[in-house]
Amino acid sequence: MDKKLFIRKHENDVILVQVYVDDIIFGSNNNTLCEKFIAAMQGEFEMSMMGELTYFLGLQVKQLKHGTFLNQSKYCFDLLKKFKMEDCKEVATPFATNCLIDADEASQQVDSTKYRWLIGSLLYLTTSKPDIQFGVCLCARFYANRKESHFKAAKRILKYLKGTTNVGLWYPCDSNITLSGFSNSDYARCKWIGKAQVALATYLDQV
Question: How many other C-beta atoms lie within 10 A of the C-beta of residue 45?
């Protein structure tokens, strides 16, 4: 549970308040609750209203009649520029299907600050781009012992972002949000799980 998220319900009405340092985002299905909250806060603190939410901490919010669209296109452009990848060649997927990333003990290490900065930036980007979640989390496993192959895999995610900067999350007003989960039968070709399956099968054959 997010300790910075406050929720108040009254019958069928609800107001949500998210606090981040000295910034506050709030919303409700009842405008009266918003007005009462504004009056209460301004009565206690010196604060200014910035109006309808459109941009917050790198997250762009576009509220339309039929739904709300979230994306981080500006954040993507800034990230590509920081790593000098704004002119890179685009790729269709964030992770290569034939890429079996492992510890890669034989390769040289890369700069720890640059690698961690990249992975941290990509992790924040998963807020609106869950399609890069798997690749970013896999690269994050090698924070302590990052090698050239790991950095190359992370940079491929940047190449994918180059062609999908405007892709985000769409939340329609007229339908319920249903979360669907999918599992790859070979666990995305994970080496560790594959080895464990072989070892288990060998053991069972011997029993």
Answer: 9
For 91, residues 6+ apart whose C-beta sits below 8 A from its C-beta are 156, 159, 160, 163
In a domain, 64, yes or no: no
Q: How many C-beta atoms surround the C-beta of residue 48 within 10 A? A: 6
* Amino acid at the residue 75: Y
How many domains does the chain fold into? 1
Q: Does residue 42 sit within a domain?
A: no
pLDDT digits (tens, 9 = 90+) for 134-156: 889 889 988 888 888 899 999 99
Q: What is the pLDDT of residues 94-129, one digit of tens each?
A: 887 776 777 887 888 888 889 999 999 999 999 899
Within a domain: 202? no
d(CA 55, CA 61): 6
The CA distance from 117 to 123, in Å, is: 10
What global pTM score does this model have? 0.72
Coil, helix or strand at residue 2: coil
**Half-sphere exposure (Cβ direction) of 205: Cα atoms closer than 13 Å:** 6
Expressed as residue numbers, the domain containing 123 is 73-167
